[in-house]
Design a protein that fits this description.
Layout: E1 2-11, E2 22-38, E3 43-46, H1 52-68, E4 76-82, H2 92-107, H3 114-129, H4 135-142, E5 146-149, E6 152-155, E7 161-167, H5 174-183, H6 185-207, H7 211-228, H8 233-244, E8 249-253, E9 260-265, H9 270-278, E10 283-289
Parallel strand pairs: 3-4
Antiparallel strand pairs: 1-2, 2-4, 2-5, 5-6, 7-9, 7-10, 8-9
Helix pairs in contact: 1-2, 1-3, 2-3, 3-4, 6-7, 8-9
The structure holds (R)-mevalonate.
Length: 290
């Protein structure tokens, strides 16, 4: 049995695609689990009903992984289970690829190290998202908070904190959102620069455990993402709701266009923020970041 966790982009989504720094943290209480067993023929099972499109994507991902790892023997059964919500900015696609790669590594005794797992996962992300920065597969492979820039992770030492993760219930395509930003790159250049600067400042605030400043920077990052055109009315409403209920800061997390917002909470306002968000969200998850 192999698993891979979820992730949240704390700062710098979209800008990270253009070589600016982004900060991502693992969400270890939500996971995708994969088990591979010997079987008479190739088969797989998933703990929910897949749409036709998802079945095709899963078949393609398996092809990419088997091809990358030079695996020919495929009389296996792959069993996939996940507590990660899909298409909502929590890294479900990267977690799926990584859990499959790790399960294949175990089953075929390939002894893949994290670097190789990450490399193959990036190939899968390219298939899913077209032009990924690599931040999602990297934070999920290493399960550590990272500042990511130009394909390289810088591992961060941070004090634990809590995020409320509120799902709009609207599914968004990362590929489409990234394309939209790219098409308007000249117009967006200045905003992208500013987002990169917010990530740099946030790294310092996180290292000092200055969560008040982290919260203020989250609000700033959200406004910049709104200017970039990737927020929605619902995402804005959830951000305003969280701040109104006492969160230290809030922003959309991931590619936008739907998906989640995150709100930074402390012991005092945790329950209030959660209850306020529940009124407008499809689901609210608690992310304990370590
Ligand atoms: C998606 O989780 C984050 C984006 O910045 C895309 C990427 O970095 O590949 C929107």
């Amino acid at each position: 049995m192999n698993d891979a966790c979820g992730k949240i982009i704390l700062f710098g989504e979209h800008a990270v695609v253009f070589g600016k720094p982004g900060i991502a943290v693992p969400i270890t209480n939500l996971k995708t689990t994969v088990e591979i067993e010997l079987s008479d023929t190739f088969s797989y099972s998933v703990d929910r009903v897949l749409y036709e499109e998802e079945k095709d994507r899963l078949a393609d991902i398996l092809d990419i992984i088997f091809f990358s790892l030079d695996i020919e023997e495929k009389d296996i059964h792959i069993s996939i289970k996940s507590t990660l919500p899909i298409s909502s900015g929590m890294g479900s696609s990267a977690a799926l690829s990584i859990a499959i790669i790790r399960a294949a590594s175990d089953f075929y005794r390939l002894k893949l190290n994290d670097e190789k797992v990450n490399e193959v996962a990036l190939e899968c992300e390219k298939y899913f998202h077209g032009k990924p920065s690599g931040i999602d597969n990297t934070v999920i492979t290493y399960e550590k908070p990272i500042l990511y820039k130009d394909g390289e992770p810088d591992f961060l030492e941070i004090k634990p904190f809590t995020l409320m993760i509120a799902d709009t219930g609207d599914k968004a395509s990362t590929k489409k959102q990234v394309m939209k930003v790219k098409e308007n790159y000249d117009k967006n250049k200045e905003i992208i620069e500013k987002i990169g600067k917010v990530s740099q400042d946030a790294k310092l605030a996180l290292e000092k455990a200055d969560f008040k400043t982290v919260g203020t920077l989250m609000n700033k990052n959200h406004l910049l993402l709104k200017e970039l055109g990737v927020s929605t009315k619902k995402l804005d409403l959830l951000v305003e709701t969280a701040i109104g209920a006492g969160a230290l800061g809030a922003k959309l997390a991931g590619s936008g266009g739907g998906g989640n917002i995150i709100a930074l909470v402390d012991g005092k306002n945790k329950e209030e923020v959660k209850t306020a968000l529940e009124a407008f969200s499809k689901a609210v998850y608690v992310g304990e970041i370590k």
